[in-house]
Design brief:
alpha/beta, Rossmann fold, six-stranded mixed beta sheet, 8 helices, 6 strands
Length: about 260
Protein backbone atom coordinates (compact mmCIF):
# COMPACT_ATOMS: atom_id res chain seq x y z
CA UNK A 1 0.00 0.00 0.00
CA UNK A 2 2.87 2.32 0.92
CA UNK A 3 4.65 1.54 -2.37
CA UNK A 4 1.42 2.29 -4.25
CA UNK A 5 1.09 5.60 -2.45
CA UNK A 6 4.65 6.61 -3.33
CA UNK A 7 4.41 5.64 -6.99
CA UNK A 8 2.66 8.86 -8.19
CA UNK A 9 5.30 10.98 -6.42
CA UNK A 10 8.14 8.91 -7.93
CA UNK A 11 6.55 9.17 -11.37
CA UNK A 12 6.30 12.97 -11.02
CA UNK A 13 9.90 13.13 -9.81
CA UNK A 14 11.06 11.04 -12.78
CA UNK A 15 9.23 13.39 -15.16
CA UNK A 16 10.78 16.48 -13.57
CA UNK A 17 14.27 15.02 -13.55
CA UNK A 18 14.10 13.76 -17.09
CA UNK A 19 13.40 10.06 -16.65
CA UNK A 20 14.32 6.99 -14.58
CA UNK A 21 18.01 7.08 -15.54
CA UNK A 22 18.61 10.39 -13.74
CA UNK A 23 16.70 9.17 -10.68
CA UNK A 24 18.79 5.99 -10.61
CA UNK A 25 21.97 8.08 -10.70
CA UNK A 26 20.69 10.25 -7.84
CA UNK A 27 19.83 7.20 -5.72
CA UNK A 28 23.30 5.75 -6.41
CA UNK A 29 24.97 9.05 -5.45
CA UNK A 30 23.00 9.21 -2.19
CA UNK A 31 24.00 5.60 -1.39
CA UNK A 32 27.67 6.44 -2.05
CA UNK A 33 27.46 9.55 0.14
CA UNK A 34 25.91 7.58 3.03
CA UNK A 35 28.56 4.85 2.69
CA UNK A 36 31.33 7.46 2.69
CA UNK A 37 29.93 9.18 5.80
CA UNK A 38 29.67 5.84 7.63
CA UNK A 39 33.26 4.96 6.61
CA UNK A 40 34.51 8.35 7.86
CA UNK A 41 32.67 7.82 11.15
CA UNK A 42 34.18 4.35 11.67
CA UNK A 43 37.67 5.54 10.66
CA UNK A 44 37.34 8.53 12.98
CA UNK A 45 36.49 6.29 15.90
CA UNK A 46 39.39 3.98 15.06
CA UNK A 47 41.92 6.81 14.67
CA UNK A 48 40.92 8.20 18.06
CA UNK A 49 42.04 4.89 19.60
CA UNK A 50 45.83 5.12 19.68
CA UNK A 51 46.71 2.79 22.55
CA UNK A 52 48.35 -0.62 22.29
CA UNK A 53 47.73 -2.51 25.52
CA UNK A 54 50.24 -5.06 26.82
CA UNK A 55 48.33 -7.72 28.76
CA UNK A 56 49.27 -11.05 30.31
CA UNK A 57 49.87 -12.90 33.56
CA UNK A 58 52.54 -11.93 36.08
CA UNK A 59 56.10 -12.78 34.94
CA UNK A 60 55.11 -13.19 31.29
CA UNK A 61 57.72 -10.54 30.44
CA UNK A 62 55.44 -7.59 29.57
CA UNK A 63 57.49 -4.92 31.35
CA UNK A 64 60.81 -6.03 29.85
CA UNK A 65 59.16 -6.21 26.44
CA UNK A 66 57.81 -2.67 27.01
CA UNK A 67 61.30 -1.42 27.95
CA UNK A 68 62.98 -3.17 25.01
CA UNK A 69 60.55 -1.69 22.49
CA UNK A 70 61.12 1.81 23.81
CA UNK A 71 64.88 1.85 24.41
CA UNK A 72 66.24 -1.41 23.01
CA UNK A 73 68.13 -1.90 26.27
CA UNK A 74 67.78 -4.68 28.83
CA UNK A 75 66.75 -3.76 32.37
CA UNK A 76 65.80 -5.69 35.47
CA UNK A 77 62.07 -5.55 36.15
CA UNK A 78 59.72 -6.38 39.00
CA UNK A 79 56.03 -7.19 39.20
CA UNK A 80 54.05 -4.09 38.16
CA UNK A 81 51.34 -2.74 40.44
CA UNK A 82 50.34 0.13 38.18
CA UNK A 83 50.31 0.96 34.49
CA UNK A 84 53.19 2.44 32.50
CA UNK A 85 52.70 4.28 29.23
CA UNK A 86 54.92 5.88 26.60
CA UNK A 87 54.76 7.02 22.99
CA UNK A 88 56.31 4.45 20.66
CA UNK A 89 57.61 5.77 17.32
CA UNK A 90 56.96 3.37 14.45
CA UNK A 91 58.77 5.14 11.63
CA UNK A 92 62.09 6.88 11.05
CA UNK A 93 60.43 10.23 10.40
CA UNK A 94 58.59 9.86 13.74
CA UNK A 95 55.26 10.78 12.12
CA UNK A 96 53.62 7.46 13.00
CA UNK A 97 53.28 6.50 16.63
CA UNK A 98 51.11 4.66 19.13
CA UNK A 99 50.87 4.81 22.90
CA UNK A 100 52.16 1.62 24.49
CA UNK A 101 50.50 0.86 27.84
CA UNK A 102 51.91 -1.90 30.04
CA UNK A 103 49.17 -3.15 32.40
CA UNK A 104 49.75 -5.10 35.62
CA UNK A 105 49.31 -8.86 35.31
CA UNK A 106 48.48 -9.54 38.96
CA UNK A 107 45.16 -11.33 39.32
CA UNK A 108 43.73 -8.73 41.73
CA UNK A 109 44.64 -5.77 39.47
CA UNK A 110 44.52 -6.77 35.82
CA UNK A 111 40.76 -6.50 35.20
CA UNK A 112 40.41 -3.08 36.84
CA UNK A 113 43.26 -1.73 34.68
CA UNK A 114 41.77 -3.33 31.58
CA UNK A 115 38.48 -1.61 32.44
CA UNK A 116 40.29 1.74 32.60
CA UNK A 117 42.06 1.51 29.23
CA UNK A 118 40.05 -0.88 27.03
CA UNK A 119 38.03 1.84 25.25
CA UNK A 120 41.27 3.46 23.98
CA UNK A 121 42.74 0.21 22.63
CA UNK A 122 43.62 0.22 18.95
CA UNK A 123 45.35 -3.12 19.45
CA UNK A 124 46.13 -5.61 22.22
CA UNK A 125 49.35 -7.56 22.70
CA UNK A 126 48.63 -10.51 24.98
CA UNK A 127 52.01 -11.73 26.26
CA UNK A 128 52.42 -15.43 27.11
CA UNK A 129 55.31 -17.05 28.99
CA UNK A 130 56.14 -19.84 26.52
CA UNK A 131 58.28 -21.68 29.10
CA UNK A 132 55.67 -21.79 31.90
CA UNK A 133 52.75 -22.13 29.48
CA UNK A 134 51.97 -25.79 30.11
CA UNK A 135 51.69 -25.09 33.82
CA UNK A 136 49.76 -21.82 33.41
CA UNK A 137 47.53 -22.65 30.44
CA UNK A 138 44.28 -22.59 32.45
CA UNK A 139 45.10 -19.20 34.02
CA UNK A 140 46.19 -17.77 30.66
CA UNK A 141 42.98 -18.97 29.00
CA UNK A 142 40.86 -17.63 31.88
CA UNK A 143 42.29 -14.10 31.53
CA UNK A 144 42.14 -14.17 27.74
CA UNK A 145 38.52 -15.34 27.91
CA UNK A 146 37.65 -12.37 30.15
CA UNK A 147 39.23 -10.03 27.61
CA UNK A 148 37.50 -11.61 24.61
CA UNK A 149 33.95 -11.56 26.02
CA UNK A 150 34.21 -7.95 27.19
CA UNK A 151 31.48 -5.93 25.44
CA UNK A 152 33.78 -2.95 24.66
CA UNK A 153 36.48 -5.21 23.22
CA UNK A 154 33.91 -7.08 21.12
CA UNK A 155 32.40 -3.83 19.81
CA UNK A 156 35.71 -2.11 18.95
CA UNK A 157 37.42 -5.34 17.80
CA UNK A 158 41.03 -4.17 18.27
CA UNK A 159 43.68 -6.23 16.48
CA UNK A 160 44.98 -8.94 18.83
CA UNK A 161 48.48 -10.38 18.92
CA UNK A 162 49.39 -13.36 21.12
CA UNK A 163 53.11 -12.78 21.74
CA UNK A 164 54.71 -16.09 22.72
CA UNK A 165 57.62 -14.70 24.75
CA UNK A 166 60.83 -16.26 26.16
CA UNK A 167 61.59 -18.20 22.98
CA UNK A 168 65.30 -17.94 23.86
CA UNK A 169 64.75 -20.76 26.40
CA UNK A 170 65.06 -24.32 25.08
CA UNK A 171 61.90 -25.52 26.88
CA UNK A 172 59.72 -22.80 25.32
CA UNK A 173 56.54 -24.03 23.63
CA UNK A 174 55.95 -23.04 20.00
CA UNK A 175 53.34 -20.51 18.92
CA UNK A 176 51.47 -23.28 17.07
CA UNK A 177 51.17 -25.47 20.18
CA UNK A 178 50.17 -22.46 22.30
CA UNK A 179 47.43 -21.58 19.82
CA UNK A 180 46.07 -25.15 19.79
CA UNK A 181 46.07 -25.42 23.59
CA UNK A 182 44.44 -22.01 24.05
CA UNK A 183 41.68 -22.84 21.56
CA UNK A 184 41.01 -26.08 23.44
CA UNK A 185 40.91 -24.35 26.86
CA UNK A 186 38.78 -21.45 25.60
CA UNK A 187 36.33 -23.94 24.10
CA UNK A 188 36.02 -25.65 27.51
CA UNK A 189 35.56 -22.29 29.27
CA UNK A 190 32.90 -21.28 26.78
CA UNK A 191 30.86 -24.40 27.54
CA UNK A 192 31.12 -24.01 31.34
CA UNK A 193 30.51 -20.23 31.31
CA UNK A 194 27.54 -20.35 28.96
CA UNK A 195 25.82 -22.63 31.47
CA UNK A 196 26.34 -20.08 34.29
CA UNK A 197 23.25 -18.06 35.30
CA UNK A 198 25.13 -14.76 35.80
CA UNK A 199 27.67 -12.68 33.87
CA UNK A 200 31.31 -12.14 34.86
CA UNK A 201 30.50 -9.12 37.03
CA UNK A 202 27.83 -11.06 38.92
CA UNK A 203 24.80 -9.40 37.36
CA UNK A 204 21.94 -11.58 36.18
CA UNK A 205 22.13 -10.85 32.45
CA UNK A 206 21.94 -14.40 31.16
CA UNK A 207 25.68 -15.02 31.09
CA UNK A 208 28.58 -13.39 29.22
CA UNK A 209 28.76 -12.88 25.48
CA UNK A 210 28.98 -15.99 23.35
CA UNK A 211 32.56 -16.71 22.33
CA UNK A 212 32.99 -17.92 18.75
CA UNK A 213 30.27 -19.72 16.80
CA UNK A 214 27.57 -21.71 18.53
CA UNK A 215 27.69 -25.43 17.79
CA UNK A 216 31.30 -25.33 16.56
CA UNK A 217 34.55 -25.92 18.43
CA UNK A 218 36.17 -22.58 19.16
CA UNK A 219 39.02 -21.24 17.08
CA UNK A 220 40.45 -17.73 16.87
CA UNK A 221 39.20 -17.14 13.30
CA UNK A 222 35.65 -16.93 14.70
CA UNK A 223 36.37 -13.70 16.60
CA UNK A 224 35.39 -10.25 15.28
CA UNK A 225 39.00 -9.03 15.53
CA UNK A 226 42.02 -10.27 13.56
CA UNK A 227 44.18 -12.53 15.76
CA UNK A 228 47.81 -13.37 15.06
CA UNK A 229 50.50 -15.33 16.91
CA UNK A 230 54.23 -14.53 16.94
CA UNK A 231 57.25 -15.99 18.71
CA UNK A 232 59.52 -13.47 20.41
CA UNK A 233 62.06 -12.98 23.18
CA UNK A 234 62.29 -9.77 25.20
CA UNK A 235 65.48 -11.08 26.80
CA UNK A 236 67.09 -12.21 23.54
CA UNK A 237 69.21 -15.25 22.75
CA UNK A 238 72.42 -13.56 23.96
CA UNK A 239 70.98 -12.55 27.32
CA UNK A 240 71.26 -9.12 28.92
CA UNK A 241 74.08 -7.88 26.68
CA UNK A 242 72.41 -8.87 23.40
CA UNK A 243 69.44 -7.55 21.49
CA UNK A 244 65.86 -8.68 21.99
CA UNK A 245 64.18 -10.80 19.32
CA UNK A 246 61.12 -8.65 18.66
CA UNK A 247 61.17 -8.26 14.87
CA UNK A 248 57.85 -10.05 14.26
CA UNK A 249 56.17 -7.99 17.01
CA UNK A 250 57.57 -4.73 15.63
CA UNK A 251 56.34 -5.55 12.11
CA UNK A 252 52.88 -6.25 13.52
CA UNK A 253 52.84 -2.90 15.38
CA UNK A 254 53.64 -1.07 12.15
CA UNK A 255 50.81 -2.96 10.42
CA UNK A 256 48.14 -2.10 13.01
CA UNK A 257 49.18 1.53 13.62
Amino acid sequence: AMAGGLEPHLAALRQELGGPAVLSVLVALIAVAITFLLWRFVQGRKSSRKAVLLLGLCDAGKTLLFARLLSGRYRDTQTSITDSSAVYRLSQDKSTNVTLIDLPGHESLRLQFLERFKAAARAIVFVVDSVAFQREVKDVAEFLYQVLVDSTVLRNAPALLIACNKQDVTMAKSAKLIQQQLEKELNTLRVTRSAAPTSLDGSATGGPAQLGKKGKDFDFSQLPMKVEFVECSARGSKGEEGEADLEALQKWLVKVA
